[in-house]
């Protein structure tokens, strides 16, 4: 029995309805697993930025970015509840499962968005807060409401939303944008298509059932495989670039090159996947590796930064 059925059984139709959602359901609205990696990239941006931020302010900044990212996930789930109810991967989410009412999710997402942006602005700086607001808007409105259901390039353009968080973290320290923060953006921006189209390949039926024009459904499997390989090569190149601008050391560059080769290797695996392969094992492997790749790149940027900082401290290298 869904929440709506419950309300109707209780004769509450037409009155203010509230579900009996638990904290766990509200937490699920924040898309915590996806957002944990998003927040990690924002943290890396904050650490790598030149300058200094007080650790307490740094912690507030990361909390605001985490809450803002989660809020955008709640707004996405509010708008997409109709298609989430049909897709096997998403049918058990709190709104389609009837544990949270759409209006509750909307109110939750809007409230958290406003608070996260306002607190970031008041405590840290308004440029970073504006960029956080723009990122929430980009994911919830530009991607979710506009692009997702209208073009197979939805995630190429919409992927910018997922790429902004390191720039937000960076802006928390510097109050602005720089070539290096744009480079961090580019790594995620170019990574997103291979990350998502790998999943879209083995979830083609789901997307077909709801009529969302994901690339494999619109352009076909061979064209998607080619696009994945292209973006994997571009991602591998962008991943090495921080070593070329001086943001990171040549050791990072070598590590990123190996990881990038791994990403290209898995994308070639998808390219060579026979079209009749129902299980699409190669696509599942690429999806899994995409997560390892992005986490490892940002971890390497952080480790490299701390090692180089330590080594260049007076007496630190001895
Ligand atoms: C518009 C860009 C993106 C799209 C369309 C996309 C799409 C997806 C989808 C559909 C899933 C499966 C989610 C689920 O079943 O819960 C997923 C999983 C995931 N994505 Fe993305 N993603 C995007 C960007 C990102 C970014 C920027 C990050 C991190 C920086 C990220 C990190 C993850 C993680 C960690 C998972 C695994 C979650 C789990 O294990 O449940 N994604 N992505
Ligand atoms: C700071 C801030 C606001 C960060 C936002 C980061 C961001 C845009 C992450 C993208 C996350 C994601 C799972 C997108 C897929 O949406 P979907 O609707 O295609 O996937 P679904 O079908 O799983 O809902």
From TrEMBL:
Q: Name one GO biological process term.
A: heme O biosynthetic process
* Membrane topology, record value: Multi-pass membrane protein
Where is the protein found, in the record's own terms?
Cell membrane
Q: Using the record, list the residue span of the signal peptide; answer none if the entry has no such feature.
A: none
> What residue ranges are annotated as transmembrane?
34-53, 59-79, 100-120, 126-147, 154-176, 182-202, 228-245, 251-274, 286-308
**Gene3D superfamilies reported for this sequence:** UbiA prenyltransferase
Instruction: Give the function comment from the record.
Output: Converts heme B (protoheme IX) to heme O by substitution of the vinyl group on carbon 2 of heme B porphyrin ring with a hydroxyethyl farnesyl side group.
Q: Which PANTHER family match?
A: 4-HYDROXYBENZOATE SOLANESYLTRANSFERASE, PROTOHEME IX FARNESYLTRANSFERASE, MITOCHONDRIAL
What's the protein name?
Protoheme IX farnesyltransferase
């Amino acid at each position: 029995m869904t929440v709506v059925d419950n309300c109707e059984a209780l004769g509450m139709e037409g009155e203010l309805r509230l579900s009996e959602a638990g904290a766990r359901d509200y937490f699920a609205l924040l898309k915590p697993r996806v957002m944990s990696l998003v927040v990690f990239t924002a943290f890396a941006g904050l650490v790598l930025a030149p300058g200094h931020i007080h650790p307490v302010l740094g912690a507030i900044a990361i909390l605001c970015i985490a809450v803002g990212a989660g809020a955008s996930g709640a707004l996405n789930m509010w708008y997409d509840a109709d298609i989430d109810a049909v897709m096997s991967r998403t049918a058990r989410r709190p709104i389609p499962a009837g544990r949270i009412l759409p209006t509750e999710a909307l109110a939750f997402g809007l409230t958290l968005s406003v608070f996260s942006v306002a607190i970031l602005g008041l405590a840290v700086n308004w440029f970073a807060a504006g960029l956080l607001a723009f990122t929430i808007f980009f994911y919830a409105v530009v991607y979710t409401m506009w692009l997702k259901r209208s073009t197979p390039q939805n995630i190429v353009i919409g992927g910018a939303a997922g790429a902004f968080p390191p720039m937000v973290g960076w802006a928390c320290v510097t109050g602005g944008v720089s070539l290096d923060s744009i480079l961090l953006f580019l790594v995620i921006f170019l990574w997103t298509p291979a990350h998502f189209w790998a999943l879209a390949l083995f979830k083609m039926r789901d997307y077909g059932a709801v009529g969302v024009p994901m690339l494999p459904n619109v352009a076909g499997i061979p064209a998607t495989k080619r696009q994945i390989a292209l973006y994997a090569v571009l991602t591998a190149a962008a991943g090495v670039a921080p070593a070329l601008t001086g943001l990171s050391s040549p050791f990072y560059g070598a590590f990123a090159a190996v990881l990038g080769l791994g990403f290209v290797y898995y994308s070639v695996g998808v390219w060579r996947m026979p079209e009749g392969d129902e299980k699409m094992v190669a696509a599942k492997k690429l999806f899994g590796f995409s997560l390892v790749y992005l986490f490892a790149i940002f971890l390497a940027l952080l480790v490299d930064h701390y090692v180089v900082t330590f080594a260049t401290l007076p007496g630190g290298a001895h």
